[in-house]
Amino acid sequence: MSEAKTQITKVDPVDFIAAVEPQSKRKDAEVLDAIFRRVTGEAPKMWGPTIIGYGEYRTTYASGRNVHWMRAGFSPRKAKHSLYLMGGYCDDIAAEKRETLLKKLGKHSTGKSCLYINKLADIDLKVLEEMIAADWEAMQRVYPAD
Question: Domain spanning 13-142 has what CATH number?
Answer without folding.
Answer: 3.90.1150.200
